[in-house]
Amino acid sequence: MFDIKVKELHKSSGGECLPYFQQSVFWGEFKALHGWTLKRFEISWTFSEEVSEEVHSCSNKENQKTQVFSKTENVSVMIRSFAKGLLSLAYVPLYPSLPFKCTDERKINDAIDGEGVSVIDESPVTAETQAIEFAALLNETGLALKPFLPKNTICVRFDPAVEFDYPGGRDDYRMGLKLVSFADRLKVRKSFVDIQPPDSTRIFLSGEEDEILSAMKNKWRYNIRLSEKKGVQIEKCFGSDSDFSKKLDIFYELYRITAERDGIGIHPKSYYESLLKKSAEDRASGKDAPLVTLYLAKHEEDYLGAIITLFCKDEAIYLYGCSSNVKRNLMPNFLLQWTAMKDAKSYGCPYYDMYGMPPTDDENHPMHGLFLFKTGFGGKNYHRVGSYDVRLKFLYFIATLGENLRAWYHKSFKKKIRGR
């Protein structure tokens, strides 16, 4: 169905990157400092299909016409060994996207409402109508990458750039991919573990500051003004600053407090240190690297919270956040986010991504408070399909069983025994 060609590129070059920070050379090189191996590929695919074309003659017969679609993109693939180096996993963030452009939803809605009947002349294209082709694209791309990967690679794990406005639509699409993969005997299956957060919200920054504020809930605007009025100060720190080590220590202590309070895992301090330093060093040397910033909220002598953000031309991302157990009534996290949003707007980012939250407003969800906090800033929610694996070896089933048990232990069991 797809003719796919793969060409390995030099990892520090490879031309234009896909418009996601996880696909940037910067991010790949950063992850390479922490156990991953970066590879860059030019991936090209061609898709041909026969379509019927009516012949306007007395015979009223149809001719077969071949339509050809193609796309070429430069893609980052990251590889990690585990089980003491016996096995490897290849990971492809935010790739591929849907192979064909979807019909504008307004056209489809107008047709349904009877206001634009002429649009029926073209067959509507949606994510659902190309589920068969997308499953095949995942399968064939994973198999095409196999010769370029270590021989002990058990699967290629994709985080496709396919998203929906509502979790129900996403869940139906997942079921469609599952049925297609089973019916066509593809090596594609949904991963139990999602590497990128599949659910999040984006605050769009094209309007004036007053317009962005007006889209927030009243309480959120009030909390921002309250924090400013009560004298909370926001400090910004970069990896090249002379007091960087001191500020990083403050951030990490706040993060340790947050992890203990909320039952979450965190990286070693060296992880955040290298992220901020690499951004500063790469930008100082003239590289096209994202701007990574540490923001700290301070009141008098107390540090109350901190966040780390990443800005690039295509997006602004709220990567990490933490808070203390004191003076929470001063609402420092609201002012931290608003300060970062204003900076992202000045930087030229089209939107500010909150980067991870529960899929729905479910009061019984253990992270319901996080959903309320992030959506209160007036963003538009989105729901990606999550991680999908293309199996390369039979050992995949054994290895992922262990992965699933580990994820269940950390995400469910440990929180239950802690009373969360």
How many helices? The count is: 11
CA-based shape:
globular
SSE series: EHEEEHHEEHEEHHEHHEEEHEHEEH
**Arithmetic mean pLDDT:** 90
Distance between the termini: 48 Å
pLDDT < 50 runs, ≥5 residues? 413-420
Number of DSSP strands? 15
Strand content: 25-35%
Characterize the biggest β-sheet.
Answer: 8 strands, mixed
Quick recap:
35% of the residues lie in helices and 28% in strands. The chain has 420 residues and is α+β, with helices and mostly antiparallel strands. The model is unreliable at 413-420 (pLDDT under 50).
What does this structure look like?
- With 420 residues, the chain is an alpha+beta fold.
- Helix content is 35%, strand content 28%.
- The chain is globular and about 75 Å long.
Topology:
Elements: E1 2-9, H1 25-32, E2 37-54, E3 62-82, E4 87-93, H2 105-113, H3 131-145, E5 153-159, E6 163-164, H4 167-183, E7 188-190, E8 199-204, H5 209-214, H6 218-229, E9 233-237, H7 244-262, H8 269-284, E10 291-299, E11 302-311, E12 316-323, H9 332-347, E13 351-353, H10 368-375, E14 380-384, E15 388-391, H11 395-417
Parallel strand pairs: 4-5, 12-13
Antiparallel strand pairs: 1-2, 2-3, 3-4, 5-15, 6-14, 7-15, 8-13, 8-14, 9-10, 10-11, 11-12
Helix pairs in contact: 3-4, 6-9
What brief labels describe this structure?
420 residues; alpha+beta; eight-stranded mixed beta sheet; seven-stranded mixed beta sheet; 15 strands; 35% helix; 28% strand; globular; disordered C terminus
